[in-house]
Specification:
Order of helices and strands: HHHHHEEHEEHEEHEEEEEHEHH
Radius of gyration: 45 Å
Strand order of the largest sheet: 1-5-6-12-11-8-7
Largest sheet: 7 strands, mixed
Number of strands: 12
Mean pLDDT: 91
Structural class: alpha+beta
Bound molecules: phenylalanine
């Protein structure tokens, strides 16, 4: 004989199982846990629903359809819950895979670096400042230059052997090509002497002109492009004594008050007389030895050659229409790269042109 109370009990147990499935699935953290729960709930042998199914047979016949419907509803609900939880977990997994790693707000921020001026720029502006204080203007001229300004007007006609020391890059252009009469990359800043004197029309002229120059050279102390600064002073009664003092003053201001200069006779086609100027070695102070060892920078001589200079050759004044009987002048030219290398202790000129920030960042 069947008990009608059994139907109510079974129906409520089915509901309870569905509710419990809902809670347990919410706690299931991953797909494996969901699949384990699926076994516990719906397993063919020992599943919890299976146990309730067995009790269907005990309910009164007239209650069977109702109890059966309750069973099917519970089963479908549990299956739907399982599927929904699996979907939910999969969606969460995909979303997490797409998300960037969470920001660690405790990490120190990345500061944009303060830029620095290139060591050549620093040296150039320091040199300009020294000469501006001494009364010089700052001028410039083209890097692609006519042969006439670079060589001929400076006393270097096409056959002149001193041209060989300044082999350069020749440019094809409207003025022709090649060594004679054509365009070239200027080999020194001296053509700016000519341009400035022509532009001024008459003395006095007192200027420095920094800029890039080019030669066919490439080794640790020579770069195919490098920087020079040229100085020119033309006027009434300008003498070699003025030149000596100006360059001595430049050396003291750039390399330190104790720096001495030495003038050695030399030759340039555009100055007469000409000299090369040495300064006492900035590394050993002119002693030739450092920490008891021979100074490698000045090779134990105590002197460093830094520039060429001389009195402007009357031939040059003639080329720009200045009366050489009335006016005299001096000129000098030096490599800014070399000055920078000596100031900062840089041993390879190529470092200045590689734009490696690890190197350039050291000149703050
Ligand atoms: N122009 C010369 C050079 O590049 C340097 C120089 C300039 C010499 C002015 C004398 C006078 O070697």
């Amino acid at each position: 004989m069947s008990d009608p109370g059994l139907t109510a009990q079974l129906t409520s147990d089915l509901r309870a199982l569905a509710e419990s499935a809902r809670d347990r699935l919410r706690a299931a953290a991953d797909a494996d846990a969901v699949l384990r729960l699926k076994g516990d709930l719906l397993g063919k042998q020992r599943g919890e629903l299976r146990a309730l199914e067995a009790r269907l047979r005990e309910v009164p016949k007239e209650d069977r359809p109702r109890a059966g419907q309750a069973f099917n509803e519970a089963k479908q609900e549990i299956e739907a819950l399982l599927g929904a939880r699996l979907d939910e977990i999969e969606r969460a997994r995909r979303r997490a895979a797409l998300e960037p790693l969470p920001a660690d707000v405790t990490l120190p921020g990345r500061r944009p670096g303060n830029g620095t001026l290139h060591p050549l720029t620093q040296t150039r502006t320091d040199l300009e400042a020294v000469f501006v204080r001494l009364g010089f203007d700052v001028c410039d001229g083209p890097e692609v230059e006519l042969d006439w300004y670079n060589f001929e007007a400076l006393g270097l006609p096409p056959y002149h052997p001193a041209r060989d020391a300044q082999d350069t890059f020749f440019v094809e252009g409207p003025h022709g090509a090649g060594r004679d009469g054509g365009l070239l990359l200027r080999t020194h800043t001296s053509p700016v002497q000519i341009r400035t004197m022509l532009a001024a029309g008459r003395p006095p002229v007192r200027m420095v002109c920094p800029g890039a120059v080019y030669r066919r050279d490439d080794d640790p102390t020579h770069s195919p492009m490098f920087m020079q600064i040229e100085g020119l002073c033309v006027g009434e009664g300008v003498t070699f004594a003025h030149l000596k003092w100006v360059l001595g003053e430049f050396a003291r201001q750039i390399f330190g008050a104790g720096t001495r200069t030495r003038f050695r006779p030399s030759f340039f086609p555009f100055t007469e007389p000409s000299a090369e100027v040495d300064v006492t070695c900035v590394f050993c102070g002119g002693s030739g030895t450092r920490d008891g060892a021979r100074c490698a920078v000045c090779k134990e001589t105590g002197w460093l050659e830094i520039l060429g200079c001389g009195m402007v050759d009357p031939v040059v004044l003639g080329h720009v229409g200045y009366d050489a009987e009335r006016w005299t002048g001096y000129a000098f030219g030096m490599g800014i790269d070399r000055i920078a290398m000596l100031r900062y202790g840089i041993n390879d000129i190529r470092l200045l042109y590689e734009n490696d920030l690890r190197f350039l960042g050291q000149f703050r």
